[in-house]
Amino acid sequence: MSSSQPSVSIVVPVRNEADNIAPLIAEIGAALDGRWAYEIIYVNDGSTDATGERLAGIMRQRDNLRQLRHARSTGQSAAVRSGVRAARGTIVATLDGDGQNNPAFLPDLIAAVEQGAGRVGLAAGQRVGRKDTGFKKFQSRVANGIRNAILKDGTRDTGCGLKAFPREVFLTMPYFDGLHRFLPALVRREGYEIAYVDVIDRPRHSGVSNYGFFDRLWIGIMDLAGVWWLIRRKKPTPDVTEVKA
């Protein structure tokens, strides 16, 4: 694997996903090898299992794999942010580390951002055929319905981890816990378009969910109110030109 400057960075937030590390990295490679110069950044969010050791072993075989470690778990949004800040690619794509997000859809998301030629600020995966339990799907429908009714972001599924965006666009977003669930509304606020890509959900490889059980049903009243306020307070972006002498 080449360690040359990547054009794409794949960010994967994980906590206690040791058994899912190797299969998912192999699938990312199968999806992207020969298509882009890319790096894979795993953000180890305070794992207490063998996640770090599994990553270290694969890093000896892949010089495009990087591991960032949080000393203690600070949540999925913080892990994604750490990965994006460390990314060297101009386009960043994210996916969950449990194997439910199929890396085969990464090329479609990345291509949607590239083809957007600066207009598309986010390519968002929209899950079809979800493999979650009925209760989890109910939670997501309620959460997405409330969010969409208030923010009117036009997105049916903000909980899908498969996303791609220009790195610089993400870094302009105000940071708060749960940011990844409000990206469509915030990206629209900045005047960018959103591309939607249907993705097929699948069961996780192994283990149990480590993120987001409570958020699926109650997305955070304070965060929702805060994002609504930000959208309401948005002023037109000035049309700036430099005056030459």
Automatic annotation (TrEMBL):
<keyword id="KW-0812">Transmembrane</keyword>
<keyword id="KW-1003">Cell membrane</keyword>
<keyword id="KW-0448">Lipopolysaccharide biosynthesis</keyword>
<keyword id="KW-0328">Glycosyltransferase</keyword>
<dbReference type="Pfam" id="PF00535">
    <property type="entry name" value="Glycos_transf_2"/>
</dbReference>
<feature type="domain" description="Glycosyltransferase 2-like">
    <location>
        <begin position="9"/>
        <end position="170"/>
    </location>
</feature>
<keyword id="KW-1133">Transmembrane helix</keyword>
<dbReference type="InterPro" id="IPR050256">
    <property type="entry name" value="Glycosyltransferase_2"/>
</dbReference>
<dbReference type="GO" id="GO:0099621">
    <property type="term" value="F:undecaprenyl-phosphate 4-deoxy-4-formamido-L-arabinose transferase activity"/>
</dbReference>
<dbReference type="InterPro" id="IPR029044">
    <property type="entry name" value="Nucleotide-diphossugar_trans"/>
</dbReference>
<keyword id="KW-0808">Transferase</keyword>
<keyword id="KW-0472">Membrane</keyword>
<dbReference type="InterPro" id="IPR001173">
    <property type="entry name" value="Glyco_trans_2-like"/>
</dbReference>
<protein>
    <submittedName>
        <fullName>Glycosyltransferase family 2 protein</fullName>
    </submittedName>
</protein>
<dbReference type="GO" id="GO:0005886">
    <property type="term" value="C:plasma membrane"/>
</dbReference>
<dbReference type="GO" id="GO:0009103">
    <property type="term" value="P:lipopolysaccharide biosynthetic process"/>
</dbReference>
